[in-house]
Amino acid sequence: MARDRGLARFPEKLTNPQGNLPHLEAFSGAEQQGLVSKAYTVAFQGLEARLVEVQCAVAPGLPAFSLVGLPDKAVSEAKERVRAAIAALGLALPAKRITINLSPADLPKEGSHFDLPIALALLAAMDAVPSDEVSRHVALGELSLGGEMISVLGALPAALAAAEADCGLICPGSCGTEAAWVGAVSVLAPNSLLELVNHLTGRAVLAQAEPGIVEMTPRTDDFADVKGQERAKRALEIAAAGRHHVLLVGPPGSGKSMLARRLAGILPPLSAHEALETSMIHSLAGLLGEGGISYERPFMSPHHTASMAAIVGGGRGAKPGEISLAHNGVLFMDEFPEYPRMVLETLRQPLETGDVVVSRANAHVRYPCKFLLIAAANPCRCGHLSDPERACARAPGCGQDYLGKISGPLMDRFDIRIEVPSVAVADLASGPPGERSADIATRIAQARKVQAARFEETTHRVNADLEGEVLDAVATPDKDGGELLAKAAETYRLTARGYHRVLRVARTIADLDGSETIGRAHIAEAIGYRVTYMG
User: Are 167 and 185 in contact (CB under 8 A)?
Assistant: First the structure.
C-alpha cells in the first residue's frame, strides 16, 4: 500500500515516462547525429600502429570537456592544448557538454600525437571543417597553445597503417618527408592547425608532402688504418658477409674497438625493405635524422652500465631498446663481461630468434632485432693475462673468473671467437698500410649478392639465418669436409648449435671464395674460429 501511494504521487511518469524531459523532444535524431563526429588516429604497440577512432559528442548540459578511452597523462592533457589551439583560430568551444571517446576503449593510448585528431573531431562537430574530409584521413600531431604543429614519433608506421586502411595521412610539417616515403598514401603536412583548416575548407590547398632521404655520410674510419691484426680483419670480413656474431678477446689497446667501429663501413647499404624496417623502429624512437629515410646500416654502441630496458627494450611505452635499434646493423658491446649478468642472459633469445618480446601487464610488444653482435672483452680484469712482461699474480684463475661471466649458452651463440693480440711498436711505426675498407666491402657485397639469389624464394636473407632443410640443402660439405667436421665435433664436443654454426660460417667462407661447394679448407677455417683458445 505504501508503494502504491508513492507511485500515485507521480501519475505523469506512468502515462508519459519522458514527460519530465521536455528538452529531448526538440533534440531530434538528425541533430544528434550532426553533433557526433569522428576522426581517426593510431595507437602504437611496438611496430604495429592500431587504428583508433576518435569520437566527439556535443550534447546539451553544463559546459564540460571529458576525455575517455584509457588515455595516459599526455593524452588527458590534450584537452587544454586543444582548447587553446582552437581559441587561436578565433573559435570558442560550445557551451555544452563535450565528450571525446578514444575507441577501442580497452586499448591504452599514450603520447601527445592525439592532440590533432581530437581537435579535428571537435572542429567537425562544430561544423568548422567538413566531417567527411576529416573521416577520410588518419591524423597525428601535437599542438602548441598557439595552434602550431609539433613533431611527434611514429609518422612512418602511422603512414603504413593509413595505407592499409585506404586513408590519407595528416601529420606535422616536420614529419611529412618521413611519412611520404610510403608511396601508397597521400600525406598532408601542415605547419599549423590554421593551415589545415584552410585546406579542409577549400580556402588554401596544401601540396602533398614529398619523400625525403637522408644522405649517407662518408665514413672516415677505414680498415687501412689498422696495422696488423690480419686474422681479426679476416674474421670480421666473414662476419659481415654472413652476419655472424663475433667475440673479440685481447689486452687493452690491441685494437678491438678500432676494428669493431670500422665494421659498419664494409657492410652493404640497406635494401629498400630493410630500410623500411629499420626506419620504422627509429621513427618510434625519434632517431630519424631530418625526417627522412636512411639507407645506412645502424651502428649502436651502448655503455656497459646501460639497464636492461635500455638494451632489450621496455620502460614507459615499451620503447625499442638498443638491440632493436641495431636491427639490420651492428651492435657493438665493449667490455662485454662488465654488463649486468641479467642483461647478458637476456640476449640469448634475441640472438637465436631475431626478435624480442617486451612483456607488460597489459600488452606484449614484439620488436625485430636481427643484428650483428660484436662483443669485445679483456682476457682478465687487469687485461694483461697473456702478456709475459706483465704477468698477472692471479693467473690463470683471474682469466677464468672474468670470462666466466659469459655463460656457456651465451658463448655458444658466438659463431666466431678470436684473440686480438697486442701489436708490436715496430709494426705500428713501419708496418705496411692495411687493405682499404672499400676493397673489403666489394667482396662482401658480392657474397651478399650470392646469398640474396640463393634465398630469393625463402624467408632467409643471409647465411646466419640458415636452419632446417635449407641448411642441409646449401651447407652440406663435400666428403673431406664432412669427415673433418665430424672429427672436430667429436674432439671438441661441439653442441648441435655449435655444429650448425660451423656449417653456416663455412658456407659464408665458401661464398667469399666464390665456391659452390663447401670444402675441407672452408670447414677447417670455420672450426678454427669456433674453438680458438682464448686465455
Answer: yes
Q: Is the peptide bond before 340 cis (omega within 30 degrees of 0)?
A: no
Question: Where do we find the cell 541533430?
Answer: 31
Say if residues 373 and 331 touch (Cβ distance below 8 Å). Answer: yes
What gap in Å lies between CA 74 and CA 66, rounded to an integer? 14
Across the range 131-136, mean pLDDT stands at: 94
Q: What is the band of 34 on the pLDDT scale with cuts at 50, 70, 90? A: very low
- Distance, CA of 444 to CA of 235 (rounded, Å): 12
* Cα–Cα distance measured from residue 422 to residue 435, given in angstroms and rounded to the nearest whole number: 19
Cα–Cα distance measured from residue 209 to residue 225, given in angstroms and rounded to the nearest whole number: 43
Measured CA to CA, the distance from residue 159 to residue 478 in angstroms comes to: 50
> Rounded to whole angstroms, how far apart are CA atoms 527 and 522?
9
Rounded Cα distance between 444 and 425, Å, is 31
CA distances 60 to 24, 31, 35, 129, 244, Å, are 9, 12, 10, 21, 66
Over the stretch 140-155, which tens digit does the pLDDT of each residue have?
999 999 999 999 999 9
Helix 115-125 with 78-88: angle, nearest 10 deg: 60
Residue 371's nearest CA partner among 470, 240, 236, 507 is 240
Q: What is the pLDDT of residues 91-120, one digit of tens each?
A: 999 999 999 999 999 898 999 999 999 999
- Inter-residue contact 186 to 169 (CB < 8 Å): yes
Contact 264, 297 (CB under 8 A): yes
Q: How many helices (H) and strands (E) does the chain have?
A: 25, 20
**Cell match 501511494: residue?**
5
First to last CA, the chain: 98
Q: Which residues contact 508 (CB under 8 A, 6 or more apart)?
A: 238, 241, 242, 244, 447, 463
What would the DSSP string read from start to end of 239-306? Answer: HHHHT--EEEE--TTSSHHHHHHTTGGGSPPPPHHHHHHHHHHHHHHT--GGGSEE-SPPEE---TT-
Query: Measured between alpha carbons, how far is 122 from 102 in angstroms, rounded to an integer?
Result: 13
Determine the Cα–Cα distance for residues 195 and 147; give it in Å rounded to an integer. Answer: 10
Instruction: Give dist(CA 441, CA 269) in Å, integer.
Output: 10
Residue found by looking up cell 690480419 in the block: 230
